[in-house]
């Protein structure tokens, strides 16, 4: 199978790396691609940075109204090719076709918001800060910026950064996850059709060595990372040590609280979608479901809803949940379920080792529900990143908030209730950057920042919307004096 090419300086380019790793369909274990992986990818990074740096001087001078024109075309191309991209996402990442289509829609929305850059980049002007003196601030691009993406949203996450970065006048490099590199390949076939100067957007494949080369290259000015907390922390530290601007989004362990006055049917449907959607491989997947008071009815309903979820190959439109990404990932999740049992938990619904007809080799786990886990145990505190729900019963909203706020992450917290006062208290006091009230996946729309807190985020400015504009620009403040005495008489 041909090794996937990089896209550097407007040309499809063979990697200088000879070692490769297979891209595998997680539902069937079929090899669907081959991607370069190894230390020689640093030479690919050097070429990509040289191309991006070479393009920067001219691109930053292109008026912003003109810089967004290729984004209008990209939106059209993404829409016209959405189905093909969605099928590629499902093939390499495992999620259902409906989930992949939704992902592309979210990518397109970021392109749409970035098209507003002529207004988003506008700045501040103060006339007469002193007699004859004006002061104003302008936003200027940084230079070469790079994005390092995770496996779970191969079509969407690069778009939290890419359209904003280039509309602000930067040039850009994307390093997709080596587990799912085919989606960006499809996207770059579209980028190749834009009237963009060579080197403005580049694609480099690889793993740790590629990332390290980006972090170490002096011409890379900013890094946008999304992935696990352990690697996010590493990227943040190493990027900062090398003088770069860094935004690093990490892992999560998201709680959802259900009060006795919540609408049972609506809550159950939304919560099971949140826990088991994308097979739990979402940084906004609900994981700990906290019921307040005695809620036997909701427990039974969650059990029935989880049990009836169809698991299988995502390209089959009737399937509601696909596999997890790798056999290692499946083993890790099964190990955490075992660990939960060792910790004293009970398995209410056991999805381990299912038989999926026709896909016996796939990395499948059916929906699983644990209950009775100790609140200070490992499983209830660890990101499982798989289709596992942990049920927790607590007595009051305050107890739920104390439990939530004692966690290390802070990506999302949700509440289901019909009480405005409790909702108001929760949204104010829950220590998480994305809050859902009667919502199960509180994913911010493109015009809002994706606001993780605590160990879910390292940095200051988040991805998307105005935060992205601030991240991808540096401010320059100008103080100008034009004394009246100098004015010529005409
Ligand atoms: P990961 O951290 O393993 O990999 C992410 C990227 O880092 C990949 O491109 C990979 O090649 C690179 N990488 C891996 N190991 C590296 C190393 N040692 N040094 C340098 N680079 C390295 O994450 P993943 O498994 O691809 O994605 C799942 C994780 O991402 C989950 O923890 C999930 O919560 C998180 N995530 C977070 C958000 C968010 O917005 N906070 C969104 C999506 C996913």
UniProtKB/TrEMBL annotation:
Gene3D superfamilies: Aldehyde Dehydrogenase, Chain A, domain 1 (3.40.605.10), Aldehyde Dehydrogenase, Chain A, domain 2 (3.40.309.10). Pfam families: Aldedh. Residues 12-478 form the Aldehyde dehydrogenase domain. GO terms for biological process: L-valine catabolic process; thymine catabolic process. InterPro entries: Ald_DH/histidinol_DH, Ald_DH_C, Ald_DH_CS_CYS, Ald_DH_N, Aldehyde_DH_dom, MeMal-semiAld_DH. Its EC number is 1.2.1.27. Transmembrane segments: none annotated. GO terms for molecular function: methylmalonate-semialdehyde dehydrogenase (acylating, NAD) activity. The keyword NADP does not apply. It comes from the Bacteria. PROSITE patterns: ALDEHYDE_DEHYDR_CYS (PS00070). Keywords: NAD, Oxidoreductase. CDD domains: ALDH_F6_MMSDH. This is methylmalonate-semialdehyde dehydrogenase (CoA acylating). It comes from Spirosoma sordidisoli. The lineage of its organism: Bacteria, Pseudomonadati, Bacteroidota, Cytophagia, Cytophagales.
């Amino acid at each position: 199978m041909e090794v996937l090419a990089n896209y550097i300086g407007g040309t499809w380019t063979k990697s200088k790396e000879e070692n490769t790793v297979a891209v595998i369909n997680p539902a069937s274990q079929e090899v669907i691609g081959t991607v370069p992986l190894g230390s020689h990818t640093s030479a690919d990074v050097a070429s990509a940075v040289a191309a991006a740096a070479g393009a920067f001087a001219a691109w930053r001078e292109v008026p912003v109204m003109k810089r967004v024109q290729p984004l209008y075309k990209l939106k059209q191309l993404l829409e016209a090719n959405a189905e093909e991209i969605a099928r590629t996402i499902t093939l390499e990442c495992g999620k259902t076709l409906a989930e992949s289509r939704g992902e592309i829609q979210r990518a397109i929305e970021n392109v749409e918001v970035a098209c507003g850059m002529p207004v988003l980049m506008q700045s501040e002007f103060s006339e007469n800060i002193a007699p004859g003196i004006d002061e104003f601030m302008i936003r200027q691009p940084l230079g070469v910026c790079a994005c390092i993406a995770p496996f779970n949203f191969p079509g969407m996450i690069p778009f939290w950064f890419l359209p904003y970065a280039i509309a602000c006048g930067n040039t850009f490099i994307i390093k997709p996850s080596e587990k799912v590199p085919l989606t960006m390949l499809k996207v770059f076939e579209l980028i190749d059709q834009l009237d963009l100067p060579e080197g403005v957007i580049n694609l480099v494949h690889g793993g740790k060595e590629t990332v390290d080369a980006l972090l170490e290259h002096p011409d890379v000015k900013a890094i946008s990372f999304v992935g696990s907390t352990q690697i996010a922390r590493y990227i943040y530290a190493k990027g900062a040590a090398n003088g770069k601007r860094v935004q690093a989004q990490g892992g999560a362990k998201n709680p959802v609280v259900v009060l006795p006055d919540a609408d049972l049917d609506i809550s159950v449907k939304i919560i099971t979608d949140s826990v088991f959607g994308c097979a739990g491989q979402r940084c906004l997947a609900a994981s700990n479901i906290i019921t307040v008071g005695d809620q036997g009815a909701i427990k039974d309903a969650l059990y029935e809803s989880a049990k009836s979820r169809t698991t299988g190959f995502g390209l089959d439109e009737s399937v509601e949940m696909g596999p997890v990404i790798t056999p290692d990932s499946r083993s890790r999740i099964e190990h955490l379920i075992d660990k939960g049992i060792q910790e004293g938990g009970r398995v209410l619904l056991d999805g381990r080792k299912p038989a999926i007809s026709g896909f016996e080799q796939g990395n499948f786990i059916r929906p699983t529900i644990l209950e009775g886990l100790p609140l200070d145990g490992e499983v209830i505190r660890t990101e499982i990143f798989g289709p596992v729900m942990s049920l927790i019963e607590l007595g009051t909203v305050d107890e739920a908030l104390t439990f939530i706020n004692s966690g290390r992450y802070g990506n999302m917290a949700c509440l289901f209730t019909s009480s405005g006062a409790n909702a108001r208290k929760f949204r104010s006091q829950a220590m998480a950057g994305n809050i859902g009230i009667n919502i199960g996946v509180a994913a911010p729309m493109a015009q809002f920042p994706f606001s993780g807190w605590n160990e879910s985020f390292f940095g200051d400015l988040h991805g998307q919307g105005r935060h992205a504009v601030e991240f991808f620009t540096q401010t320059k403040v100008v103080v100008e004096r034009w004394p009246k005495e100098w004015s010529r008489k005409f």
